[in-house]
## 1
Amino acid sequence: MKKQNTARRKTAASAPPSQVEPGTAKAMTEGGKSTINDVARMAGVSKKTVSRVINDSPLVRPDTRERVQALMQQIGYAPDPQARGLAFRRSFLIGLIYDNPTAQYIVNMQYGALDALRNTGFELVVHPCDSKSEDYIQGIRSFVQRQKLFGVILIPRVSEDQDLADALREMGCRYVRIASIALDEPARMLQTHDRLAGIEVANYLESLGHRNLGLITGPRRYRSSIERGGGFIDGLAKRGIQLPADCAYEGGYTFESGVAGAEKLLQRTPRPTAIFACNDEMAAGVYKAALRMGLSIPGDLSVVGYDDSPLASQLWPALSTIHLPIRDIGRQAANILLAGEPALRGPRSPPNMAVTPHLSVRDSCQPPKG
Amino acid sequence: MKKQNTARRKTAASAPPSQVEPGTAKAMTEGGKSTINDVARMAGVSKKTVSRVINDSPLVRPDTRERVQALMQQIGYAPDPQARGLAFRRSFLIGLIYDNPTAQYIVNMQYGALDALRNTGFELVVHPCDSKSEDYIQGIRSFVQRQKLFGVILIPRVSEDQDLADALREMGCRYVRIASIALDEPARMLQTHDRLAGIEVANYLESLGHRNLGLITGPRRYRSSIERGGGFIDGLAKRGIQLPADCAYEGGYTFESGVAGAEKLLQRTPRPTAIFACNDEMAAGVYKAALRMGLSIPGDLSVVGYDDSPLASQLWPALSTIHLPIRDIGRQAANILLAGEPALRGPRSPPNMAVTPHLSVRDSCQPPKG
DNA sequence: CTGAAAGCGCTTACAG
DNA sequence: CTGAAAGCGCTTACAG
C-alpha cells in the first residue's frame, strides 16, 4: 500500500495537473461531488494528509501540500461542511441575532457580514428575536446549541444585554457585540461611537448660529439613545449652551414618537429653531409635525437625523443626518469573529479600522432667521 | 443483550416519566447534549427505533413511540441536524435568494419564512446575489451544493429567471418562486397577482374623477413592473380611458427615477392630475418633484404608490399605496417548500390561502380640481 | 512529516 | 414491528 502510494505520488507529481488518470477523474465527476477519499486516492496520500492540507496544518511537506492543493483546485473539491462540523463538534454557521431595528440597518448588516464570509465556507443564519420577551435568551441558547454555531453577531438592542452575553460566554459561544460603547473586552466588541456623532451635531448646529435647540432621544433602555443624546447635550454645554430639561423629549425611535416629540417641542417659547432627532424615522416625524404647523424646513426649522437611511435622501428637503457605515460594521464584526480561525478558506476581507460616524450635510439645516 | 433491553423496557414503561434511573439521567446531563444513544439506552430500545420515532416512521408500535417521545421530551433531546444531514445527504437549511430589492421587503420576507420554520428544525440562510452578473447562477449552484440545501426561496427579480429555475431543477434542489404571475408549476410558485393591484389603482383614480393620468413603471425586465403598469393601463381602458404613450414613463424602481419621471410627466399639457408610481420609492420621488414645482399633494396632484413600505406612512401627506402582505408571503413560501416533509418537528404554521394585494387609502389622493 | 484506527450522531439497506 | 452492521465525510488521538 505504501509502495503504491509512493508510485502514484511520483506519477502525479511529474504529470501536469491536467493529466490526471482518466479513470480516477471520471470516478469523481460522475457520482456528483468528490470526497476527501477521492482526493487522497488521486494524490496518492492518506486522507489524513488531505485533512491536514485543508486545515492548514504545518505538519505537511511543502511540496505535498502544493500537490494536494493543486489537485483539490483542479477537481473543484470542497470539504463537506456537515461532515467537518460533525467531527469538529461545531458548525460553520454564524448567527446574526437582532431585535427589531430598522430594516435597512439589518439588511446592510447582513450584506457586510456576508462580505467577510464570502469564500470562507461559513454561512450566515438569521435569528430575529424579541428582547422584551421573558425567555428570549433561552430561545437563543437553544438555537446556538442545536446548530452548534461557530459564533454570533449581536446587534443593538440585544447586544447591550449583559445577561445574553453572559449566557453565550458560559456556553462557550463566540460572539461580537456591536454597540455604542465598550461593553465587553475588545475581542468581543465593535464600537460605533455614537457619542462623538452627538457632539458633532451639536457643534454643527451651534456653528450655524442656533441657540434654541430641541432634542428627541430614543428610549432610555437603548444605550445608543443615551450616547447620542448625551453627546449632543455635552457638545452644546462645551460651547456654552445649556439645554433646558423641557427641550429634551424621550421618543421611541418611531415615526409617531417623532411627530409627538416635535409637537411638544415646537409649542415652547421661545420656539426651537433646530431639532436633533436621534434617528431618521423620528426626524421624518418632525417633518410631518412641522409641515402640518405651517413651518418650513429649513426656513423656520432645521432638522438633523441619525442613520442615513434611504428615507433621509427621499424626504424633501433632503435630511442632514449622521451617516453610519453599517455594511462596513457588519463586515468588521464578522471579521472579528473569524479572527485567528485556521479553518478559513479563501482570502480574508480587508483589515479592521476604527468605525467613525460622521454628519452627512444635505438640505434640512440653515442659520436661524433674524 | 436483547433480554436486557426487554427488561429495561418494562422498568421504564412501568415507571412514571420522572423516575428515570439516576445514573443514566446523570450521564446525559453532565456531558452536555444527549444523543440518540442515550435515548435508546434509557428507553430500552435500539437507536434505530429511536430514529424511527424521530422520523415518524409507521413501523413503530404506538406505545413504544409514545414512551420514546415522552423520554425525548423529558430530557430535552433534539437530534443533531449535522449528523442527520450527513446521513440524509442533505441539510436542514433553507436558502433565501434575492437580488437587491428594498430592505423592508427582504426583512419582512425573512420574518415570514422564519414564522413557518419555527420549531421545525430548519434554519434560514441568506444569500443575496446580483442577477446582472454573468456567473451569478454558478454562485448559487455552488452555494446549494456545498450546503446541500433542503430548498430555496426565490424572490423577484431572481425568481423570474427561468435559467436559474432550470439550474435548480437539474440539481434536484427544491425551490419556490415568488412572482407576479404563474411562471412555474403550482408546487413551485407563489403568485402575488400584481396585475389585479394595477387594475385596482386605475379604478380608484378613475372613480375619484381623474381623466389625465400619469404612470411611472419599473424597469421592463421586471415582470412585476409589466404587471403593475399593464394592469393599470388595462383597468383604465376598461373604463374608457386610453393612456397616451407619453403619459407612461419607464423608471428604475429608484427614488431618482421617480423624480425624473414626475418632472417629465408634469410638463405635459394637459398636466396629469394623478400619478401612479409602481413602487413607493418612486412615489416619494414624485413628491419631491411636485413640491419643488410648487404643486401641492393632493390638492394639485394625487399620487399612488406600491409596496406599503414604512416610507409610505412617513411621507407627508401619507401615501396611498398598494399593500402587500409580504410577511405572510414569506411564511407561505416556506410552507410550500416544507409541504409533505415527514422530518418536520413541531406544529405547522397556518395553511396557505391566496395572496391578494389591496389598496391602502391614506391622504395622497382626492378628486381633481375644477 | 505521514498514516491506520476509531469516532462524531445520525441513517440506509438488510435481516429477522 | 425491531435490531445489528455498515456508512455518510470528515476529524481527533495515537503511532511511527
## 2
Amino acid sequence: MKYATPYIPPTLTVDAVIFQLNGTELEVLLTQRSEDPFKGEWALPGGYNATGSTTLEALASVVKRKVGVDIDAQLAYIEQLYTFDTVARDPRGHCVSVTYMGCGRAIELGSGSQHAAFFPVDKLPNLAYDHASIIAYARERLSAKLTYTNAVAGLLEPKFTLSQLQTAYEAVMGREIDKRNFRKKFLSLGLIHETPDMWREGAHRPAKLYAFNNTSLEVLSRSFD
Amino acid sequence: MKYATPYIPPTLTVDAVIFQLNGTELEVLLTQRSEDPFKGEWALPGGYNATGSTTLEALASVVKRKVGVDIDAQLAYIEQLYTFDTVARDPRGHCVSVTYMGCGRAIELGSGSQHAAFFPVDKLPNLAYDHASIIAYARERLSAKLTYTNAVAGLLEPKFTLSQLQTAYEAVMGREIDKRNFRKKFLSLGLIHETPDMWREGAHRPAKLYAFNNTSLEVLSRSFD
DNA sequence: GCAAAAGTGTTTGGGATACACCCATGC
DNA sequence: GCATGGGTGTATCCCAAACACTTTTGC
C-alpha cells in the first residue's frame, strides 16, 4: 500500500484496571498524576508502549514503575479488556490505549509509590481522560466473568469461607444473594473443596475454610447467576 | 515520563473478520495479498492506521479500498474483537493490530476487487500472519454473541423463515438443534413476529416469513442455548 | 401419489427461587 | 444468656431436553 504522506502511527499506550476486594467492597488501583495533562487528578496506572514490547510487557513495566506492583507475582489473573482510540481522548494528541483488567488480593503497593491507592469502585474521585468509563466497562466484564468462570478465585485468599466467597460475588455484582441458594449452587459446581482448617474470628461460630481445586482460569459448563 | 531514547510507537494496523451466511455455511471474507510479505496468500482485509483516524475509521477506509465493501452500508453489525500484538507476528517489524468482527448478508464485493472472496470458515486456505487464529477467535465470539443477543439478525434477510433462522444458529454454533425445541424457545423470547408473507420454494409446503422487532443489537435477559 | 420441507405437543428431570430456624462461639 | 455470624432443607415453578407424526405443496 502506498501513501502520499509518510505513515505516522498514533501514540500507543497501555492502562490497567486492577481490582481487589477489601471486606465487602471492590476496589480499583489508581495513581495521582504528577504532570500535565490532568496534573493532580487520579488516573489508571499506565504509560507508553514503544515498539519492540508487547502491550502486556509494556504494561508490566509501567505498572511496576508507577505503583510498584508486579503483575506476574501479585495478580492472580489479567486479561486484555478493550482498545480505546477516540482521537480526542488525550489532549496532547491522538493516542490509542490498549487496556487490561486484572484481579488480586491484598495487593501491596511498592514503597516508591506514595501517589497510588485503591479506591472503592462506587466512590471514585474525579478521573483523568476517559478512565471513568474504562473502569465501568471493566467492572461489567468482571461481573460477567464471575458468572461463567472461576475468576472469583483471583479475588480471594487461597483458603476462604463460603461467606467470604458470597461477599465477593455480592461486591462485584452489586446485589445481594440468598445464602442457602448460593451455597447449594456453588458447591454443586464442584470447583471447591473443604479444607481441614477453620476460620475463627469474633464471638460466633467458626467457619469451614474451602479452597479451589484449580486456581487457573476455567470456563464453567453451567453458568452461575 | 522521561525516556532515555526517543519514543517510537509500533506500527498500528486494523483487520476485519467479516462473516456472512451462504446457505448452511458460515463464510468469511478474505483478500489475496498482492505484495510481500505473504504475496499470493490469503489474508483478512486490513491495513495501516495512521494518526488522526480512529481504528474504525481506518478500517472502513481500508475495507472499502481493498474489497469494495462499505462497512456502514453493507454490514448489519460490527464490533471490536481483540488487539493482537506479538512482536513477531509481522516479519517486517513490530506491528499491533486492532481487529474487528462484523456480520452481513449477501455482501456484494466492489468491482475493483478481483482478489477478494468469501470462504467457508471450515474450509479456509492457508492464511498469512496469525489470521487463522484471529478467525477462530472471532468465530467463538460470534457463537457466544448469538446465545445472549439478537446478533443473528445481522446474518439474515429482513424477512426469514424459522428454518433459515435455525440454520443460521447451526452454522455458527457448528451443531444441530432440535426443531421443535428451537422454535418454541426462540418464539418465547419475543424478538420476532410473523409477517403476512410466505416463502415459496420447491415442491413442498410454503413457510411463514418472520421479522425481528428490533434489528439493532440487543442483549437478551434470558440467554439462548 | 410421492417427495420434500413446514409445522406442531407432551412428558420428564433438573435447576432456580423463595423462605426460617438451629448451631457454635466469645464475652 | 445473649449477640453474632455459620450452617442447613423443602416445596414450587419453570425451563431444557427428548421425541414422531401430520400438513402443504410441486411435479
